[in-house]
Every structure is written in C-alpha cells, then in structure tokens.
Amino acid sequence: MFIQTEVTSDPARMTFLPGREVLPHGTLTFDDRAAATRSPLAARLFDVRGVAALALGPDYITITKESGDWQHLKPALLGAMMEHFLSGAPVLSEPAHAAAPVSEATGKLVEEITQALRHVIDPELGYNIVDLGLIYHVDVDTDGLATVTMTTTSPGCPATGYLSDGARERAASVEGITRAEVTLTYEPRWSTDLMSDGAKAHFGIGTGRRR
C-alpha cells in the first residue's frame, strides 16, 4: 500500500492520499480525540502524539498538528493509516450520513462557494472549473474553514497552480468563510463525462449516449 502526501497552504496541515476510498461520500471533521470515538481510523490517528485535529474525505485524510514537525510525525501517521486499512476495520462505526448531518447554513455556504468557483476559468479550455467537472467536493467546517477538493484535466497540467490558487481565493472570498484550502487529487481521473450538460453542449460533446 502506497500513501501519498501533499502539503497545504497551512504549514500545520498535511493531506494524505491512501489511494483508496476513505468515506463513501461527504467529509467528516474531528476537532479532538473525544469526537473520534465513532471512527476507528480517526481514533488510531489521534493516538499519534502531536495530532490536534483531522478531516476525512472521499479519498483523503487531512491532519492538523499541534506540535512536532512533519519529519517525525509522518512515519507514525503513515504507519497508523496502513495498519487500519490493512486490518479491514471500518472507517466509521456508524453511517457517515448519521454522523455528520449538513446544516442548512453549511449547505448554503457550500452552494455559494460553488457559485464563486464558477468565476475561475480554465485558461486552456476557456470554461469555468465547476462545469468542466474539475471540482470534486466542497466542505465547510464549524470554524468557517472551506476545503475544496479538485482535479485538473491531466496530471502535470501547466495551469495547476493558477487554477488551485484561483479556487482558494474565490472560496475564501465568500462571506462566512474564514480560510480556504485546496486539495488536488487525480482519483478518479478527470474525463469529459464529468462535465455538466451545458459544458458538453458548449464543446459539442454528445449527451445522449454514455460510454
């Protein structure tokens, strides 16, 4: 099992990509050890000294550290993740939808962020990143932190920095958001199937048949 890591704009946070599903849908944030009791994976990660908080997403785990440096924390965190996934234990001891209901206010913020992200235009295709299908997930936690999980049309896309910076700035511009982070992923890989019907029509891609 190979787990990738990605730095974030916050030096106290790091994202881990285990290369497999973490949650079937949505995102869960655990602000302390007590909140992690419903997740065997989260509880195991909180056992690593120096972990302050964490978030679980569809295919990623974001860790916030309270102390120590990543050079020493990463091996312990990677080991805990591998032990969990190889053990076959569930990520949650209860369904995700029961553990993390989305409030009306949070849902409204997610909708507003999504609309704001439509102002970010892919410079190569000349179309917004939401309808191109580059935005995989938007989440807002109770502290107003917005996390945007997105991809690009291909790994190594020269516009990656431009698009991720634009997404971060637009998400942070929404009233009620205190900070925004962007997580890049290539699982699943982007394809034209992820485009909205409007984008497909714009590019002359048929919507009547599915491959």
TrEMBL record:
It holds the Pfam family FeS_assembly_P. Residues 3-88 form the Scaffold protein Nfu/NifU N-terminal domain. Gene3D superfamilies: Fe-S cluster assembly (FSCA), Scaffold protein Nfu/NifU, N-terminal domain. PANTHER family: FE-S PROTEIN MATURATION AUXILIARY FACTOR YITW. This is DUF59 domain-containing protein. It comes from Nitratireductor arenosus.
